[in-house]
Fold these 4 entries.
Entry 1:
Amino acid sequence: MKKIVFFLFCILIFGGNVMADSIKSKQEIIKKENLKSIKGDSKIFSGEVRVTLLFKEETYRPFSAGLVEFEAGVRSAWHTHPAGQSLIVTKGEIYTGTEEGITQIAKEGDTILCPPNVKHWHGAGLKQGGSHIALTGIKDNNNVVWLEKLSDEEYERAIKEAK
């Protein structure tokens, strides 16, 4: 009886691992029409923003991705990412600033690399919209810590200084 129980236990353990490995090895395509798109929350964005979740994190992929589309003059609130973030600019220009007062401009095709826990904001310019794909790491089940909004005055000054 002990041998049978041990045998069944081995099948359960090793068979489960084989099954889990086969699931991990299958590719998946998420069709464009199945992507969820939402209006950005006014508590964390100043103005009209459209956010499309491209994919969520998985055990084999410790990050998520989203397409963020900003209208002209729109930006995020200040925030940090416990596991960092990378932004790939897909349209227009994206401005990004840090609490040290450094504002940079990334153009279509450029990538913005933000290390963990750097306080920053990002968004479009004053007269032109822009979009980026955000690849955001996950640490301890958290991908972002939202902070206060960037004021109109801070934003306009940052844009002028970046040019």
Entry 2:
Amino acid sequence: MADTIRLATENKPSIHALEATNFFLADVQTGLGPFLAAYLAGSGWEPGRVGIALTIGGVITVALQAPAGAIVDQVRSKKLILIFASAVLALGAVLLSVTAAPWAVYTSQLLIGGAGPFLGPTLAAVTMGIVGVTFFDRQFGKNQSFNSAGNVACALLIAGLSHLFGNRAIFITAAILTIPTVLAIRAIRSKDIDYDLARGGAKQVHGKEVSARASVMKTLFRDPVLLIFLGCAFLFHFANAAMLPQLGEMLSHGVRASAAPFMSACIIVTQVVIMCFAPAIGRFANLHGRKPLLMIGFGVLPIRALLYTLTDNRESLIAIQLLDGVANAIFGVVSILVVADRTRATGRFNLVQGSLATAVGLGAALSTTFGGKLIQHFSYRISFLSLGAIAALAFLLLWSAIPETLSRRRDDDTDTPFQETPQELPA
């Protein structure tokens, strides 16, 4: 026990640096994402051209998710990936701050869309490499909390700076925030990151030798539980992604000036819920399993869609947004835990993370198109109810086809740097 406490204490500086990386990297990504459309519209871009610019980045991101995960599995220096991707994001931000000319905007979207897919898998890989399988649940939940705190802090910072100095300050701020991000990454000690663990590999499981890396076919296409879970993730985001944009669009008619503050309030509510509950979600999933939490996360989504059709009171709608925070907090943490469970000892953890991100991205992209068509031909009410029906389908598929993925035997395995019970992880 003394050795395990010593190991945990020795890794603490790297763990704190990892948490700081999640915080500052969220700042950079927040500065580059939600505010771009408003910046381009204010620079004289027509809505159609704004959509094309945003689509370029989105398509690149979705296309690179799985390949990026495979690269993260192979590259030994995870810190180098994070530093390089952060630098590419900063370059995209600098281009946007200099000019809103088409060449600069399209180039920046290629850079940002190309760097983004590497960040999530690499952060999860570094987490796994530092804390091991036994404590990945809890630490990944804490990472998500720091990420959401960064989103809230950056949204508030940018709101103030853009009010004082104009929209160009958004991207200057994002570029400057790359500096503390890189400093935090460099503070993670490379010797604390176990390469095999970081890609979901292991030398022994249950006392038996295992291969360092399983084939892609065996890991992904021959695991029906994993494939069905990717389908559940697709349906979840197909139902979820369009809800908040539709709500903002519906409420902006005739009161456009108050739409932006309303949307900001909704986004902040969601992020605050994630920030507060993500660590507890990681701990609960470690002790009691993944499926109970997933059932709650998937179950609140159709309820949220229904509630949106029952009131147009802004305070009530913001309160309903608490459910969005619950759903996204659970999915953001537990979905990666399920991937970790199903890819254990395969060496393909990050590849499957990328496949999950692809399913999420495709679902989100189709969601806005689907919801927009329903609004165009029917009404907002019909669109919300239809999205709620898809959410209910995702819930039923999860309930009927996905078993509990947490292995109760994992404390006997030899692929984790600490051999404590979950309750003995130092705070």
Entry 3:
Amino acid sequence: MNYKKFCGGIFETNCYLLEAPQGWILFDAPQGACEWVKSLGINPKLLLLTHGHIDHVQDVARIKRQFGCQITCHPLTAPMISDRDFFRNFGFELEIEPAKPDLLVEETPSRDFLGAQFQVLEVPGHCPGSLCFFLPNDRLLVGGDVLFAGSIGRGDLPGGDIDLLMREIRKKLFPLGDEVTVLPGHGPPTLIGTERRTNPFVGLS
């Protein structure tokens, strides 16, 4: 599947545009994502959120206003994007422009998004409600902040559990196959096989 990548905000957060049969899907919305999509002349029909950490959702409301696309997320992500003070309640001096999700999604073996069949995997440990979106036919995983090239997501933020994250990566992501490409929330793409063999947190070495 054809995809485009943008890295935005002070945390250098990745988002991705994937061209599905019935239109473009945007995965995550870091700062600057709305202007990037506009510059491409693309009108996404759907915004899928991997999780609700602020660096992945800062442009959600702008994107909704600009493109009118549906916002889809896990139920546990909904308050993170709809409550302006959600992050302040945990002691962070951060706030977002609130936005209300249009659709809620949880783990499921098959879900049609704009004509593309995804497997939706819930992989907790980094953030409550963290989702990975897998395209079996393309051997492509949009992974959020779960598995990185040579690393994994942090587990010390509210709701995090690093031991759970490591278990869930081994249980749910590694069985997808060594040849699967992971599009992570930070850093370059990687292969599940590479991480299974060499990742210092969850690999064999």
Entry 4:
Amino acid sequence: MRRLSVLILTVVGLLFPLVACSATATLPAPTVTVTETVTAPASGARTPTAPPTVARESPSSGLPTIPVSDLPPEGQLTLDLIAAGGPFPYSQDDQTFQNREGLLPSRPYGFYREYTVETPGSPDRGARRLVAGSDGVVFYTDDHYNSFSEVIE
């Protein structure tokens, strides 16, 4: 009788993993449903469809960065003029930027050059500028040197 019990336990022990495997293999895969809840602001203002660009700090200058694609179209045109060596629309363009505000990394006199980024509708040069370093680094300001962002690709 004891032998029969051992035999039955052995057979059950061998068959149990096979039964367990076949049982789990036939279970349907779980279904995951993702829903997104969008709420309108109480004021009824329109919500933006794309998140704003997150300003990252440049490791080389410590300033926020701005991708070329986020520059105003006139800034992108000014970058093209800088790459081509001009001609520039204003006599002040391609002149030494002295960094009097001390917001850009300290470099020797003559390292930085400034360029106008036209402001549509402005009666004068406006407040927007690109400042380019002789090593190829470029900074953008839209508030006439009160703040800068490093331009990145």
